[in-house]
Structures are given as C-alpha cells and as structure tokens.
Amino acid sequence: xxxxQPTNPFADVAKMxxxxxxxxxxxxxxxEARRKDIEALVEANKAAFETMQALAKKQTxxxxxxxxxxxxxxxxxxxxxxxxxxxxAEALRKGFEKTLADMKELADMARHAQNExxxxxxxxxSQQAKKS
Length: 132
Known about the structure:
The longest helix has 47 residues, at 85-131. The chain has a domain at 40-131. The chain is elongated, with a radius of gyration of 25 Å. It has four helices and no strands. The protein is mostly helical. The chain has helices at 9-18, 27-33, 35-78, 85-131.
C-alpha cells in the first residue's frame, strides 16, 4: 500500500477551467469564489466514500459470520446434533432475526452517512444564503 498525499481538487479544477479561457473572464477568480462550495462537496463525497467502505466491510463480516453459522448448523445436523425439528426451526428463526438486525444496522449506517453528507451541503448553502 502506498502512502498517498491528499490531492488538491482546486488545482485540478483551476487547470481544467484554464482550458476554457474566454476573453474578459478570469477563470481563476471564478474558481476561487467557488472554493468553499467545492470544499463542501469534497467533504460530502469523502463522508459518502468512507461510509461505503465501512458498509462493504460490515457486509463482508456479516456474510462471513452467516456462512460460518450455516456451516456449524449443517455439521450439527449431519452429526445428529440437531435431529429435533423444533431445534432446527429455532436455529432458522435466530438466523432470520440476525439477518434482519444486520440489515437494519446497514440501513442505519447508510442513513447516518447521508445525513452527514447533507449537513456539509446544507451548511455551505446556508453560508451562501447569508452572503446574498
């Protein structure tokens, strides 16, 4: 894994805008005027990206746990450790409840991330509205 330096999105935007030079328009000034807008979007995207990574890790952990649980249950059934249909039904019920709880946790994580991203955008919009 390489140690990456944080990138400066403004330099990239400024370079891109310089390609579209128009007489009488200072693109650098436009970019600078929108710096805070871009910062808010970068922060919102960063929060969304970090959440997506966390969701992927959580989903992987959940899948691993579920597979291990199914393997354990299958081994118990094959070895005669769970011949009682009531025990089998209880194991299925617990597995289903765990799956629902995991899905709720993932939904809560996603909702929290959306809220965090929106806070960044709303704060910036509020700052812009106060200036107007």
